[in-house]
Amino acid sequence: xxxxxxxxxxxxxxxxxxxxxxxxxxxxxxxxxxxxxxxxxxxxxxxxxxxxxxxxxxxxxxxxxxxxxxxxxxxxxxxxxxxxxxxxxxxxxxxxxxxxxxxxxxxxxxxxxxxxxxxxxxxxxxxxxxxxxxxxxxxxxxxxxxxxxxxxxxxxxxxxxxxxxxxxxxxxxxxxxxxxxxxxxxxxxxxxxxxxxxxxxxxxxxxxxxxxxxxxxxxxxxxxxxxxxxxxxxxxxxxxxxxxxxxxxxxxxxxxxxxxxxxxxxxxxxxxxxxxxxxxxxxxxxxxxxxxxxxxxxxxxxxxxxxxxxxxxxxxxxxxxxxxxxxxxxxxxxxxxxxxxxxxxxxxxxxxxxxxxxxxxxxxxxxxxxxxxxxxxxxxxxxxxxxxx
Length: 389
Fold this sequence. Notes:
With 389 residues, the protein is α+β, with helices and mostly antiparallel strands. It has eleven helices and 16 strands. The chain has two domains: 180 residues, Gcn5-related N-acetyltransferase (GNAT) (Aminopeptidase, 3-Layer(aba) Sandwich), CATH 3.40.630; 174 residues, Aminopeptidase.
């Protein structure tokens, strides 16, 4: 949009944001309370700790005056949505209120890869309602007597806009930059033919389960005679420490924000732990993760446990964690593993030359990747009614 720009907020913006908050709090289903210094501390902490996915954004004009700001609250990255508060300056609301919000929405869908934005406003606030409706937000629910203020209960409107809504809505050319050239991926269009109550982590030979305290000693004892690190560990292989396996239990899976990674035990049908599978780092903006697999005992290899674990984990990553891409690596001296991954559906994307130094020599590594569409097609999960080019 000519003359308007969006950026992450910095500490120098705090005073202006607090002023906008005071101007706009009358629209929202929250009552901003507390001394100004406490509110400033909370905002400062949010700006300091926030990533691009859950930060504070400001929209300013060509001379640097703040037109509007957007604060992300309660982002559920697994489901691809966030709740926002949109504050617009009363000085610039009439010419720029809708335009600034369109820039924020485009940022969220085009760059931050959200699938939905949610906002709640008081039903009596017509001016903000009109801005939201003009930007493509839809009223999804009227929450009766949801908000109590000044001795009275007030209705609240729960509103939302999806990536599909935004992609399909009509926008005047002067309201947004290059909207005609903005293209979104087709993931949000893919419809899956599975029941919403299907259990994804249960297989024929193994199940993926949390690792518990009783598993720690078993895994540690198995690791003493295991060569698993030779095949799958980028660091220098050395005898495992008990603390390594304790950390798996201590680091609880966060199924909402996914900020700490996620891991499962590979458990045979008789309840025995055979290994682990998981992703230590998940890129939430780009929606991809690197999966790592370890089968600890030679006795458990060649039985299909590893391949089924990867299939179950891929299902979970694409169907529940809402990933766009899953990738992994393997050392090129481990040809069996690479062939297994390719049979499962991963595609060889490149060779990382001289990737690992093992027993006196450098060895290449293979990078293999799998996209959501490829996996859903391979598994026969795509609903035939999906309309996607």
